[in-house]
Request: fold
Amino acid sequence: QKDYKLWLQYNTVANASISKEYKDNLKGIVVLGNSETIKIAVKELKTGFLQMLGNVPEIKLELKGENNLIIGAQSNLNSEIRKELQSNFDKINEEGFIIKSISIQNKKQIIITGKKDAAVLYGVFNFLRIFQTNKSVKNVNIADSPKTNIRILNHWDNLDRTVERGYAGFSLWNWQKLPDFIDQRYIDYARANASIGINGTVLTNVNANALILTPQYLEKVEALANVFRPYGIKVYLTARFSAPIEIGKLKTADPKDLEVINWWKNKAAEIYKRIPDFGGFLVKANSEGQPGPQNYGRDHVDGANMLADAVAPFGGVIMWRAFVYSEHDANDRAKQAYAEFQPYDGKFKENVIVQVKNGAIDFQPREPFHPLFGAMPKTPLMMEFQITQEYLGFSTHLVFLPKLFQEVLESDTYQKGKGSTVAKVIDGTLYQNKLTGIAGVSNIGNDLNWTGHPFAQANWYGFGRLAWNPYLDAETIADEWLRCTFSNDEHFIKPVKKMMIDSREAVVNYMTPFGLHHIMDTGHHYGPGPWVSDLSRPEWNPTYYHKADKNGIGFDRSKSGTNAVSQYAPEMAKVFNNLETCPEKDLLWFHHVSWDYKLKNGQTLWNGLALKYQEGVNQVAEMQNVWNNAEKYVDIERFNEVKMLLEIQQKEAKWWRDACLLYFQQFSGKELPSGVEKPTQTLEYFKSLKFPFAPGNG
Ligand code: BDP
Reply:
C-alpha cells in the first residue's frame, strides 16, 4: 500500500540521464562504524538504491577505489578525510551532517558524515532525498544542522488507545501487548521521523494519566525507547502533577513538600535506570481541570522547578505548558497566558522550557502570533503547533499547514527591534537561549495511511522540516514532499503545489475569515456553531468570540476594549490597535467592526465577509479541478481517496458558508451580495445537526 510508505516511496528514477549520473558516481558504499544506527543507515541506502536505481552498489568495509559513497561519523574517518572536512565540521552542530564530493588521493568520492551516528543517519535520509527529487549529486556540498534542539511530536494518546483530537484511528501504542510485542509500526514510525529530523516523542496525552509512571507501564515505555533510540529519537512522558497522590499514596502533591520532592526524585531515578536517555516531562498544569501547583497555593515556577530538579541530574528537561486560562477571569481569554507567565521571566531553572501555542487562543485556522513570543527574554520558549486538525476540518479537509506555521514563524514580534521574528525566539538566536524546541501535536494514528488524509502526511513532514529549520518556506516543503510522495513530473508538481499552498487560505475563508475565531461547534469542534452560547464557561462559547450584534462583529481587543494589544511590543500594539493599520486578516480578532465598515477594497464588511465565505467554497472547487487533472500522475487508490475527501470538503465548505452567513445575517439584517450562492437550508436546520460520536473527543 503506497499510502503507508509516506514520503519514502523511493520511486524509480525515471530520467535516464539522472539515473546514469547517480550510478556513475556511486559504484560502492563504504561503511565506517557498526552501531545500530549505522546499520539502519546502510539498510536505508540499500532500499533506496534498489528501488530508485534498480541495483545496490557493493558494500565495502574500507575505502578502496573511487566513486564510492562513504558513510560514517567523524571519529571513524581517517585523518586525511577528517582534515579535508575540518572547515565543514566547524560549521555543524552535534546533530548536523555533511554531504560532500571530495577528492582523496586524487580519487573522487562522496561522503556523508557528522559528529555522531544519528547525524550520519540524517545525512543519509537527506542524500536519498536528492535521488527522490532528482537533483544532481555532482559536486554536492551540503553542511546542514538543525536550528532547534528539541524537535518533538506530542501524542495526545490515552492509555486506552483513544487519541484526544486524533482523527486517524487509534493510538499506535499497543500498551496491552507491550513490552513483548514490538509492532513493525513502531519501527516504521521511528524511521519516518528520523527521515525528517524529529528527535523526540511524548507518548502520552497532556491530559495525563498517572499510571504511565508505574513500573507496569514504564516497562512498556522502555521497550518503545529501545526501538526509537537507534533512530536518534528520545522518549518523553506527560507527568500528572497529582501522581504522588494517585500512585504514590502521598497525601499531597504540594511541590514544596519534602516527601513530594523526594517522590519525584525517586521516580526520575527509576525511569532513568530503565531509560538512560529519557528526555523528560511535558506538563499541563492548572489548565482545563488538570491538577497543578496552584492547588497548593504555589505557582507554575514552583511546580516546574521542582520537577526540573528531579530530572536535572540525568540531563532531563521539563516542558511546561503556558496554555492556561482561568474560569474566574473571563474578560479576555487571549490575555491570560501572557498575564500569568510573563512575570515569571527568568525564574525557571535552566532545564525548563516553556511551551507556548502559536496563538493566544487555541490552534485556530488563523491567529496572530502569541504575545509571549519575544516577551520573556530570560526564558527559553518552545513553539507548540497542532498538526492534528482539531479546528480545521479534522483529517477530512485538505489543509497544508506549513503555510500556517511559516506565517507564525515569520511574524515580527519587534520585542528587540525590527526583525525580532518568532523564528528567532524559537531557535534561540534572539536572546541566546541554549535550550530550544518545537513541538507538534501529532496527527498520527493506526489508520493504514497514518494520518487519515493522504495530504495530512504533508503536515507531519512539513512540521519536521520546519522544526529542523524554522526559516524554510512552505513552497519548498510542498515541492519536496510532492516529489518524494507522488511524482517528479512538472505537470503534476506545479498545479498540485499551488493547490497545497492555497489550501490554508481556503480554510480560513470558508471557516473564519477576517480574524474570526473559535466559532466551531461544541466540544468536538467539527463544523460551524457560531450560535453556541450555553456552555458552562463563557469563554468556551462561540458567541463570546465573535460578539456579533446589530452594530457589527468582532472582539474588541484594542485599547478601548480589553487592551490585549498592549501585550505586544509597542510597534505591533500600535499596528493592531488602529483599525486603519490592523491587517484585515486579523481585523475581527482585534476589533468590533460595524457591518458597514469599508474594507480596503471598498466593500462593506458584511459584503466582504459574505464574499470571503464564497471565495473559500470556490477555492475548494478549484482544488477539486486541480486534483481531477492530476489523475494520470497518481495511483488509483490515493487518487480516489483524495477525490472523495475533496468532495466532502466541498460540501462542508458550503455548510460553513451557509450556516455562518445565515446566522450572522440575523444581526446584520442585510441581503447577501451578488456572487454569493443562496443557502439551500435554513439556519434551524444547521443548528439541529448533532455529532454525538465525532472522533477525537477524548
Ligand atoms: C484544546 C483541546 C483539548 C486539549 C487542550 C490542550 O480542545 O482537547 O486538551 O487544547 O492543549 O485545543 O491542553
The mean pLDDT is 97.
